[in-house]
């Protein structure tokens, strides 16, 4: 249920309407006859948990998928080095997973087994020029981070509060370079402060794709680049398809993945618009064991 408030001539009109939601509650979950071969896992707000006890359970669940011949892999908006920094070496050592196969930077980077680069979408030099001019005119260069396949960059000294925030969320520290140097790099995604990004001479979905992962934070990738297109590229590379892949996530950037995969799960802390696109909705938040619960529902009683 949702309420819409509209004010006209000092009169408040409340309209109540029902949303058509295709999602089912996890209490009604029926295990598929054939288990998926792959499991795409969002990280922030889904898999990673600050509480070490809960996170250890998620790690064990990740390992359990592998034991049951289901290949879990990350499908995240984060760059690969920052994702590794967040999870820590112990996770990768314990699970034997090196981050590949995997999807990073909201689908701009797709890796197959053993680190094979399957797909990389990057911004053109012309777009970078236009974007840099826009950010310069708006005084936002110190709050703008450019991501390549292996590093983060800024073209002005990064603002202290931005740097502190990056440290808080365990991102790697950006390196300051000149814009001419930046143009020689493979810039796959750009993160900056905005709630409603608009740039003269550039159009959303034609020149860039945009998501807002947090309040006041925008992330753009090249046009047509999202988790759905990345998943399709990876599954094609693995000689698989969406019928053989499950997906779990919490954010708006996970919706394209939900649309592709037959079996999809939204954690309990996901926004309503995200839950409406998932096949199943968890009754637990990400930090309450949602990932572990999904894994056990899928593989319990499996030999």
TrEMBL record:
Q: Which GO terms describe its molecular function?
A: magnesium ion binding; phosphatase activity
The name under which this protein is listed is: HAD-superfamily hydrolase, subfamily IIB protein
Q: Which GO terms describe its cellular component?
A: cytosol
Q: Which domain of life is it from?
A: Eukaryota
Q: Give the matching PANTHER family.
A: HAD SUPERFAMILY HYDROLASE-LIKE, TYPE 3, PHOSPHOSERINE PHOSPHATASE
Q: Which Pfam families match?
A: Hydrolase_3
Q: What is the lineage of its organism?
A: Eukaryota, Sar, Alveolata, Apicomplexa, Aconoidasida
């Amino acid at each position: 249920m949702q309420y819409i408030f509209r004010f006209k001539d000092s009169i408040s009109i409340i309209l109540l309407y029902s949303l058509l939601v295709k999602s089912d509650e996890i209490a009604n979950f029926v295990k598929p006859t054939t288990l998926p071969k792959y499991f795409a896992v969002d990280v922030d707000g889904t898999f990673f948990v600050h509480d070490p006890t809960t996170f250890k359970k998620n790690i064990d669940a990740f390992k359990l998928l592998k034991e049951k011949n289901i290949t879990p892999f990350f499908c995240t908006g984060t760059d690969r080095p920052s994702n590794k920094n967040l999870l820590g070496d112990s996770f990768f050592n314990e699970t034997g997973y090196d981050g590949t196969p995997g999807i990073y930077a909201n689908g701009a980077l797709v890796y197959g087994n053993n680190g094979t680069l399957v797909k990389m979408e990057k911004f053109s030099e012309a777009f970078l020029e236009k974007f840099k001019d826009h950010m310069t005119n708006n005084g936002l260069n110190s709050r703008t981070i450019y991501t390549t396949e292996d590093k983060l960059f800024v073209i002005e000294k990064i603002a202290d509060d931005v740097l502190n925030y990056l440290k808080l969320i365990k991102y790697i520290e950006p390196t300051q370079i000149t814009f001419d140097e930046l143009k020689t790099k493979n810039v796959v995604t750009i993160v900056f402060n905005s709630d409603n990004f608009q740039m003269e001479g550039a159009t959303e979905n034609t020149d860039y794709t945009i998501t807002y992962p947090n309040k006041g934070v925008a992330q753009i990738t090249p046009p047509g680049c999202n988790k759905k297109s990345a998943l399709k590229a990876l599954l094609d590379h693995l000689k698989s398809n969406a019928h053989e892949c499950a997906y779990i996530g919490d954010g708006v950037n996970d919706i394209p993945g939900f649309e592709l995969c037959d079996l999809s799960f939204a954690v309990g802390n996901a926004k309503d618009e995200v839950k409406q696109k998932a096949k199943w909705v968890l009754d637990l938040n990400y930090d309450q064991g949602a990932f572990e619960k999904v894994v056990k529902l899928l593989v319990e009683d499996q030999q």
